[in-house]
Amino acid sequence: xxxxxxxxxxxxxxxxxxxxxxxxxxxxxxxxxxxxxxxxxxxxxxxxxxxxxxxxxxxxxxxxxxxxxxxxxxxxxxxxxxxxxxxxxxxxxxxxxxxxxxxxxxxxxxxxxxxxxxxxxxxxxxxxxxxxxxxxxxxxxxxxxxxxxxxxxxxxxxxxxxxxxxxxxxxxxxxxxxxxxxxxxxxxxxxxxxxxxxxxxxxxxxxxxxxxxxxxxxxxxxx
Length: 223
Description:
Shape: globular
Structural class: alpha/beta
Oligomer: single chain
Largest sheet: 6 strands, parallel
CATH architecture: 3-Layer(aba) Sandwich
Strand order of the largest sheet: 1-9-8-5-2-3
Strand content: 15-25%
CATH class: Alpha Beta
Number of helices: 7
Radius of gyration: 16 Å
CATH topology: Rossmann fold
Number of strands: 9
Order of helices and strands: EHEHEEHHEEEHEHEH
């Protein structure tokens, strides 16, 4: 159960509010260190928030971008999280390639790809944006999956329930070690899972990310 009370935002304002939260969290990190790390998810809810974030003035040359999860597809594939983030955020900001740490979903050796990505991660991520599915999954951590019990590895290759099935994902230890985590949830179809996760239901992966600030629209909050 998150120790932070959830924030309920009108649906039209949700992308802007999420972007402002990320910008504030990055600014906080940059007051304490030279560079800040931002880890991003894919999905329909985060995309508009990235477009809002791209309009905000930050010292972007000091921000490194990482990924929460990725499907094992090429980076220009429509299902690629990188493809979404590139179009909505990276390209508008014109970030240097050296600032972007992409999960290599085109690689055939999935376990090696996961190990290599773990080696690229900072000791702890500064800012993480997560989404949640109607089944309560977050990142590519799904209910009942053995990956939920991982204690030491920071990145895993996993098989999800929907095509394309193979994914790479940050693990719970990595998410729980992050300094600022936003769980962004929208839509009435996620209301039941959100209520269960916020109540601390450990059967739902989202319920295990106990350091997250939840931000929801009214439909997801059931209001």
